């Protein structure tokens, strides 16, 4: 549970009011409010569970108002659901607000920061602190600048493959257990503090990655952009061959692209994963190899069909010449017209010779 005390400790707020019990009020939402309207008695749009930030504007609004009027509104503002009230710019807290906070046992803080900047910093910090979280049995690495989550059943070789990738110059974030949180639509993966920088390799035990491979082989967190799911090789199981289909997996509230790779003793999995990440980056930049391959096949098929039509046209013309040469010269005034020799016309119409006399059809040759 994230409390007002955690917030005060992080930002170094001065505590004006609130005992230890009061400072344990939970913060449940990242949204903040500037309660100018509430201090004037308008609570139509008031959200009780938000942190209230009072700056120069709010102080100016209530400066000449009756203390008893402000106190009654401040009592409603300092409801037991309110996590905290913060006075910015290091200004002195008005007496009606202080008295209301004392009566309602509401945490009241003071900050020297500018109101707008503090408002922004608070929102960014709270969205991360209150982000939905989960943990997975997996390995997380940064490969070519892309956060790649390696998943698969226990014993499939995730740690060993990760070790090989680290030796190639890629960075480890977490081995065996990955903490994941959804921060403003982005999945951020990190390592539990107890195992940070450590890996378990079967047959060897725990190894210290930065001591063995250098400090640059390690990173604290990364955005997860791709999931590589490792499965045991099975020749009877259908696998993606062209790459036109993109599988996705849902983590928390986000859909992440996933590549399923079969593992076998004959395959260099680290190089295959590097190729998978490179192909993912190409797609992200607008180049899809599977789509380009399909376009190439379609172009070849279209070219062959065109060549076939041209060949049919040449044959039909030659047949027409043979037919004309085998027939006697028509009577004076007669005409010979050739039927449609378009390759797309029906076979019955191709190569027909019609005799016309004075424009009147006389039949086929």
Question: Secondary-structure map with pairings?
Answer:
Layout: H1 4-11, E1 14-17, E2 32-33, H2 36-39, E3 51-54, H3 56-62, H4 67-77, E4 85-87, H5 95-104, E5 108-110, H6 115-129, E6 133-136, E7 139-143, E8 146-152, H7 158-167, E9 171-174, E10 178-183, E11 186-190, E12 198-201, E13 205-208, H8 209-213, E14 221-232, E15 247-251, E16 254-263, H9 269-284, H10 289-326, E17 334-338, E18 353-357, E19 360-364
Parallel strand pairs: 2-3, 3-4, 4-5, 8-14, 14-16
Antiparallel strand pairs: 1-5, 6-10, 7-8, 7-9, 10-11, 11-14, 12-13, 15-16, 17-18, 18-19
Helix pairs in contact: 4-5, 7-9
Q: Features of this protein?
A:
365 residues; single chain; 3 domains; alpha/beta; nine-stranded mixed beta sheet; 10 helices; five-stranded mixed beta sheet
Order of helices and strands: HEEHEHHEHEHEEEHEEEEEHEEEHHEEE
**Whole-number total of structural domains:** 3
Q: Kindly provide the radius of gyration, computed on alpha-carbon positions and rounded to a whole number of angstroms.
A: 38 Å
Mean pLDDT: 86
**Number of separate helices:** 10
SS-derived structural category: alpha/beta
Helix content: 25-40%
Number of strands: 19
Distance between the termini: 96 Å
Write a brief structural summary:
The chain is α/β, with parallel strands linked by helices and 365 residues long. The chain is built from ten helices and 19 strands. 34% of the residues lie in helices and 27% in strands.
């Amino acid at each position: 549970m994230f409390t007002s005390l955690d917030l005060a400790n992080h930002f170094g707020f001065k505590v004006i009011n609130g005992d230890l019990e009061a400072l344990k009020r939970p913060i449940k939402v990242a949204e903040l409010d500037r309660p100018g309207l509430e201090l004037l008695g308008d609570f139509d749009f008031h959200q009780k569970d938000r942190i209230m930030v009072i700056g120069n504007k709010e102080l100016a609004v209530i400066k000449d108002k009756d203390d008893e009027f402000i106190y009654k509104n401040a009592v409603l503002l300092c409801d037991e659901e309110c996590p905290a009230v913060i006075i910015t710019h290091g200004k002195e807290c008005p007496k009606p607000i202080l008295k209301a906070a004392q009566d309602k046992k509401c945490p009241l803080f003071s900050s020297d920061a500018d109101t707008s900047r503090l408002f922004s910093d608070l929102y960014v910090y709270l969205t991360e602190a209150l982000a939905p979280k989960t943990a997975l049995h997996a390995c997380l690495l940064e490969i070519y600048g892309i956060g790649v989550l390696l998943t698969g059943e226990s014993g499939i070789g995730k740690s060993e493959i990760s070790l090989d990738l680290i030796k190639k110059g890629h960075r480890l974030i977490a081995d065996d257990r990955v903490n994941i949180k959804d921060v403003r639509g982005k999945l951020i993966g990190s390592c539990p503090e107890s195992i940070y920088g450590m890996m378990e390799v079967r047959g060897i035990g725990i190894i210290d990655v930065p001591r063995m491979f250098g400090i640059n082989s390690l990173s604290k967190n990364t955005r997860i952009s791709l999931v590589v799911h490792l499965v045991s090789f099975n020749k009877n199981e259908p696998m993606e061959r062209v790459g036109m289909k993109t599988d996705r997996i849902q983590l928390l509230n986000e859909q992440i692209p996933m590549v399923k790779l079969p593992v076998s003793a004959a395959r260099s999995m680290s190089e295959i994963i590097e190729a998978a990440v490179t192909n993912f980056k190409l797609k992200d930049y607008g180049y899809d190899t599977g789509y380009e391959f399909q376009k190439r096949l379609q172009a070849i098929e279209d070219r062959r069909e065109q060549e076939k039509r041209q060949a049919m046209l040449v044959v039909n013309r030659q047949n027409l010449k043979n037919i004309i040469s085998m027939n006697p010269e028509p009577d004076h005034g007669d005409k010979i017209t050739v039927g449609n020799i378009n390759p797309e016309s029906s076979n019955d119409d191709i190569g027909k010779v019609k005799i016309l006399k004075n424009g009147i059809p006389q039949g086929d040759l």
